[in-house]
Amino acid sequence: MAQVQNPTTTTLGYALFATRWLQAPLYFGLVAAQGVYVYKFFKELWTLILMCVTGHATETYVMLAVLKLVDVVMIANLLIMVIVGGYETFVSRIGLQGHRDQPEWLSHVNSNVLKVKLATAIVGISSVHLLQMFVDVHHTSRHALLWGTVIHMAFIASAAILAYMSGPMVAHTDRGHADRAPAAPAPASDHGGRRHTEPESQRPPAAAVPPQPGPDADAEARIRAAGFPARKVLEEFDQQHPRGFDREALARLGKADFVGARHNVVFVGPPGTGKTHLAVALGVRACQAGHRVLFATAAEWAARLADARAAGRLDAELAALDDHPLLIVDEVGYTPCDAATAGLFFQLVAHRYERASLILTSDRPLGRWDEVFGPSAPALTDRLAHHAEIVRLDGDSYRTRRATSAWAD
Length: 409
Known about the structure:
Oligomer: single chain
Shape: elongated
Number of helices: 15
């Protein structure tokens, strides 16, 4: 039975939640502090240059001056983590997903990650301060050296304790998400997008690919919006089935870095060798890395683009797809492609060239795509393959093998 919420309680809750915006001016104040450190950095740098040019700079002075500059930069790094990460965590989403300059740490930032990074930054700053004291040891008292060392060790110990405590807290949060999430279907899938019960012994070792990230509500929303035919993960791919397969390439692609680099991936191989499985699994990884993804077969993409062209909004449709850093085009070449459709695919590939990523699966190598796209094939494949990882899968159909095995039983 649904629980009826009290309107007064709800309004009060929304009002309290809105008070988070009171923190926004604090972060803009830190931006001003960042400007102060920029001024201090260039002032110290100018003084160092003048001392070196006039010949008054000793080796010790240069070293201490450089350490001061490093100290200023590290404090500025600490500030930017607090400004961007704190605002993102406690005030409002900034919405940098898919931006080419998005910091790596921001895609998975939370209060625990932010605290650990701040603690390690403070340890780094303390290390520079301590090094300055030892470099200028002749002008530093033993009392100052002793207490500087003790304070530095205290920073190290506190950072280690905080990092240790963050592990159990994250695990507890993940268990809480798992308890609230609906039960997932049994991990049963073949590599063509259809389900089956896969024996545990046939699964590849987990170390073959990077580990799958933990649960995340935003990532789950992106996965649901991607339109995958079924949820696949790299860990369930049977790496022993294809006779020819670049496992190192799969390990690289499993990090999802190719999306941020705006590179493409092309899986080529006979039907049933796992192309769709791998394309979907990489799409899931991209969603978990903070990227929006759209999946459709080549026939579905052709219909979508043809409808947009018929409505006179093809350019607008291609521009709207830029909101998705990764598009997946499955089953290229499985259905006939006329000249008009080939032109649409060329426009899609050309529009996303060096701008966003594509994953395509096909039963034939790029050298034979003239059989699919006709005269458009050379220009299309040239742009597609320029920044692409092409993964070839050789072998018999996984579905046929299982059907034959089931018949034999």
